[in-house]
């Protein structure tokens, strides 16, 4: 194990004096690690909430479609402010970074430079065909529209609309990999975008024909919430797979409205797993076994890790072939990364020799700060081509989407958040083909 003083080639650079880290601020949106939580509450045996996915939309096991379920914390009606008709620009006191992504919170989410209100610029041109042609521009009505909720099209239509807006010409493909790719989304810091990245990459890939499974391995169940998958106490969840050897097939739920996407939810029961795992046999490889025993073949399995380096994260690292590390473009972004890399190396040495940190994604990039640019430069210098070209900007649509039980891909497909995650998913798919060919 490389100690802090060793010249570890994987050592992560620490913030340098005078490197542009001028604003020692960060936003942490998440409570602390899941470890140390109290024991698991008494569980009553429940039948599986859904059958297991055996196919796409026609799967008879798909659970009946519930109506969109706003998060309890969500407002009862559509967002009160919605997309501003006049873009909120950066104040004069901040310096734009050249070449940075072109959107920030409050900016129009369509990516258009035109500030004028009116039909969304991302509306497919007449004659583009598909859903847009049939439904006309009304289908692209802004979420400011008060009647938006009443007029909500079925969720499947939302998915079609998202594809139409994100990929209007249809020329972007996300080829399926020849072999399933199991990706662990890890970073022991909370609030860096692990869950947001998991949910949005999974939806983007599923919308483009990949069969995707999301395993929610965080007792907070944020990925389950973001995908609108029931995960209240008593729902069969990943805890049952880890502790009671229940097959993944019995707990995976089809994600409503997104073909080819399933989720193994996390309930609060998972909070006790970190402690209970200590005394079970093969405690580090419970998840690996559950995924390996899985009869289904997925193209992608994304494992959303908790913000800790405990046994749950170790299980994810043992089950995965690849690690995807989201790095928030903030002052403390690189702190603690050494610890994560050291843990990954330990798992590699002892439990999973083929594990590879394949992908780094920069999240919450704020083009108004030189700090974000400095973090990006440091991360690119250190990790080289592991860092995706796509960078996820800080974008208010991304943070609003989960309260509607949606990814930003379907919530506001024209937003910078959605287009950036779309680009990131495309890069990941292309890399998968380079690694091992297409299906
Ligand atoms: N690109 C983004 N722009 C704005 N808010 C974001 C963005 N990515 C994530 N967030 C918000 O930041 C918070 C933390 O993100 P989350 O994905 O839950 O992090 P983690 O899973 O690493 O703890 C959430 O409230 C989320 O909505
Ligand atoms: Mg999370």
TrEMBL record:
Transmembrane segments: none
Residues annotated as domain AAA: 181-356
Pfam families per the UniProt record, alphabetical: AAA_31
Region entry Disordered, spans: 1-134
Feature: compositional bias, Pro residues: 65-82
Record's compositionally biased regions (Low complexity): 83-115
Annotated protein name in UniProt: AAA family ATPase
Naturally occurring in which organism (per UniProt): Phytohabitans kaempferiae
Organism lineage: Bacteria, Bacillati, Actinomycetota, Actinomycetes, Micromonosporales
